[in-house]
UniProtKB/TrEMBL annotation:
Name of the protein: Scarlet
GO cellular component: cytoplasmic vesicle membrane; plasma membrane
Main subcellular localisation: membrane
One Pfam family it belongs to: ABC2_membrane
InterPro entries, alphabetized: AAA+_ATPase, ABC2_TM, ABC_transporter-like_ATP-bd, ABC_transporter-like_CS, ABCG_dom, ABCG_transporters, P-loop_NTPase
Family membership: Belongs to the ABC transporter superfamily. ABCG family. Eye pigment precursor importer (TC 3.A.1.204) subfamily.
Coiled coil: none
Domain annotation ABC transporter: ranges: 78-323
Lineage: Eukaryota, Metazoa, Ecdysozoa, Arthropoda, Hexapoda
């Protein structure tokens, strides 16, 4: 049953033992690139369904088909020594997640990071990949090709997450094309970019699904789990990283899809990449694809070395893997906490880790690490630099904005029903409202209230529903935003600006349509000047409302919290709009609120457009003995509402200022939120 050990025949062990002498990265890569056709059949053997050359290198006839005959990736050697990871808890205490862990991953190797749930695999891998969550403290040395890891890891390494996140409405080709624009060197020609995308789609069997949406609208074909994983893999391969981290890539896949994906990872290693992979209890066939195994338990190393050596090590401790057991399952069983007897389990795990720390395998590993450090120390700067993609030029700021805007516009275009329903709904409300005011907007005493009412309807419709509808937009995108920020694809302000630009067409069309219908049905002032500027103010109102809603969603992070704070705020806005209370009579301690009320500014501006210069408001017939108060001019109407007739452009300036302030506050809140993660 112990079929996981391709080293059982001795071929692998000879490589293991020679690995200390064979420290040249180039050798690893060269071996990996020996043309398959040059190896005769007597120089190969088959184990676990995988062909191996006499050099014990898996012979993927399909390597070139799988991953193409691209140029050899930059060799990446990652060494980590005495790495300890703590996380800061809320009350300031530190919790240790990874404890004094060392290891090495060389070019052309596929390393499995295994252990029971909660062992610290993901924590260690994010530390090695320099993609730690905020609040993580990493101690120890992590060195890639002689340099302590840093932000350069974004361009030198790829990171496949356990749960892949995509903009679901995009097709495979759109996703990869946009990612190519965001990730690849800006000097890459459009043809080369296109070729790369096509090549990856073919190699990863995604070409047939290139026009399939990743996730979907009802009834539409979408990608399978395996295809999604392969797409995530393709996304990482766009920059052809020398180092690849994969967090549980087989989770959620059936055995055939898992085998397919792992074969791809193996092929990447054969090409010369360094691949580090966390994996949960792989089958023997899958385990056979790995060169090295690192077993973690309770944040410590329980074993590091080849799979066959792991069997020997556990046997030496008295843990004899039953013949019917998959060895990896057995290792995990030994290292997992047993419910009900956690104390005894912890003691047993500690004993395994302690024994490994003084084992020959640990000493060998330590020697290998020391040797690697020694070699790195003696490399000159030029050699070190040649191992990095220092000439990489990230896409320019405007390129990122254009492609992000394109991505978010596609979301709208992909589902035009949402847009159509929104427009129809808007028009229906506009007709309803317009019909209520039809024939009422006259220059009479009663008409004053009707005109002011119609103006307020235009303002309210462009404020409340849009402000609330935007509350879940950014929080829904936070997980993906965090991930793409960590991958160094763009910055928070670039994301925010792009997101808002993509919204903008809707923010112009919506208020224009609504105002157009209400204005003409209600029969508001029939000059082009008044109509045009009313539409302009309505557009401004909607944009300020969206900016305000976005700020609340960024500041409070979730829709329920944002609503809790927004409701009292919107009441304040409404009360101070000038329609419900005479602004000059408001108590001093509260009257300042009118200055942040865009409802007040817009109400004043639209009222001015309706009443400026009006001189002929009719009064009811008066009997000789009763003097009925009567408003005869537009200026008097404005005075009734405490609006200044000359305030129009001041109101516009205030609306623009509020628009900018809310967006600025939203960006600051979003930055704070994304930095905390
Ligand atoms: N932010 C955090 N605050 C507190 N504890 C944390 C935090 N992040 C991780 N942990 C704890 O650290 C331990 C290791 O977590 P990690 O995700 O690295 O485990 P894992 O081995 O990848 O587990 P799994 O296989 O289930 O994904 C777990 O016990 C987890 O609860």
């Amino acid at each position: 049953m112990h079929t996981l050990t391709k080293a059982d025949d001795g071929a692998s062990s000879s490589r293991e033992s020679s690995s200390l002498e064979d420290t040249s990265n180039a050798d690893c890569v060269d071996n990996a690139h020996e043309p398959i056709s040059n190896i005769s059949s007597e120089n190969m053997y088959i184990d676990s369904g995988i062909k191996y050359s006499k050099y014990d290198e898996p012979m993927f006839d399909e390597v070139e088909e799988l991953l193409g005959a691209s140029s050899a990736p930059r060799p990446c050697t990652l060494v980590w020594q005495d790495v300890t990871v703590h996380i800061k808890l809320k009350h300031g205490k530190l919790k240790r997640l990874v404890n004094n862990v060392s290891g090495i991953a060389k070019p052309g190797t596929l390393v499995a990071l295994m252990g029971p749930s909660g062992a610290g695999k993901t924590t260690l891998m994010t530390a090695l990949a320099h993609r730690n969550p905020v609040g993580t403290i990493v101690d120890g040395d992590i060195v890639m090709n002689g340099l302590p890891i840093g932000d350069f890891m974004h361009r030198e390494s790829g990171y496949m997450h356990q749960d892949e996140l995509f903009v679901e409405n995009l097709t495979v080709m759109e996703h990869l094309s946009i990612m190519a624009r965001l990730r690849m060197d800006r000097r890459t020609s459009p043809l080369a970019r296109k070729r790369k995308v096509n090549q990856l789609m073919r190699q990863l069997s995604l070409y047939g699904a290139r026009h399939t949406r990743i996730g979907g609208l009802d009834g539409q074909k979408t990608l399978s789990g395996g295809e999604r994983k392969r797409l995530a893999f393709a996304t990482e391969l766009l920059i052809d990283p020398g180092l690849l981290f994969c967090d549980e890539p087989t989770t959620g896949l059936d055995s055939s899809s898992a085998q397919k994906l792992m074969t791809l990872l193996r092929a990447s290693a054969v090409q010369g990449k360094t691949v580090i992979c966390t994996i949960h209890q792989p089958s023997s066939e899958l385990m056979a694809l790995f060169d090295n195994l690192v077993l973690l338990a309770e944040g410590r190393i329980a074993f590091a070395g080849s799979a066959s050596a792991a069997l020997n090590f556990f046997e030496s401790l008295g843990y004899q893997c039953p013949i019917t057991y998959n060895p990896t399952d057995y290792f995990i069983k030994v290292l997992a906490l047993t419910p009900g007897s956690e104390g005894a389990s912890r003691q047993a795990i500690k004993s395994v880790c302690d024994r490994f720390a003084v084992s020959d395998a640990a000493k060998e590993l330590d020697m290998e690490i020391q040797l690697e450090f020694h070699l790195m120390d003696h490399e000159d700067e030029e050699t070190k630099r040649s191992k990095f993609n220092i000439s990489y030029k990230p896409p320019l700021l405007h390129t990122k904005i254009i492609w992000l805007v394109y991505r978010y516009l596609l979301i709208v275009v992909r589902d035009p029903r949402v847009l159509l329903i929104r427009i129809l709904q808007k028009l229906a409300i506009a007709f309803m409202a317009g019909l209520c005011f039809m024939g009422k907007a006259n220059l009479t005493q009663a008409g004053i209230q009707d005109i002011q009412g119609a103006v307020f309807i235009i303002i309210a419709e462009n404020t409340f529903i849009p402000m609330y509808s935007v509350l879940n937009m950014l929080p829904d995108e936070f997980p993906m935003l965090h991930r793409e920020l960590k991958a160094g694809l763009y910055s928070t302000p670039i994301y925010y600006v792009s997101r808002m630009i993509a919204l903008f067409p809707g923010l112009v069309i919506d208020p224009t349509l609504f105002t157009l219908v209400v204005y003409w049905i209600a029969g508001l002032r029939g000059t082009l000047y008044a109509f045009g500027l009313t539409v302009f103010v309505a557009i401004l109102v909607l944009n300020v409302a969206i900016a305000c809603g976005t700020f609340f969603s960024c500041a409070f992070g979730s829709m329920p919290l944002a609503i809790a704070y927004l409701v009292p705020f919107d009441y304040t806005l409404m009360i101070t709009s000038g329609l419900f209370i005479k602004l000059s009579t408001m108590p001093k301690y509260i009257s300042w609120l009118r200055y942040i009320s865009w409802l007040m500014y817009s109400n004043e501006a639209m009222s001015i457009l309706q009443w400026d210069g009006v001189q002929n408001i009719t009064c009811p017939e008066m009997s000789d003995d009763v003097a009925i108060p009567c408003v005869r001019t537009g200026e008097e109407v404005l005075t009734v509402y405490d609006f200044g007739p000359n305030q129009f452009w001041t109101d516009i300036a205030a609306l623009v200022a509020l628009y900018l302030i809310f967006h600025l506050l939203a960006i600051l809140a979003l930055r704070y939120r994304t930095r905390r993660k």
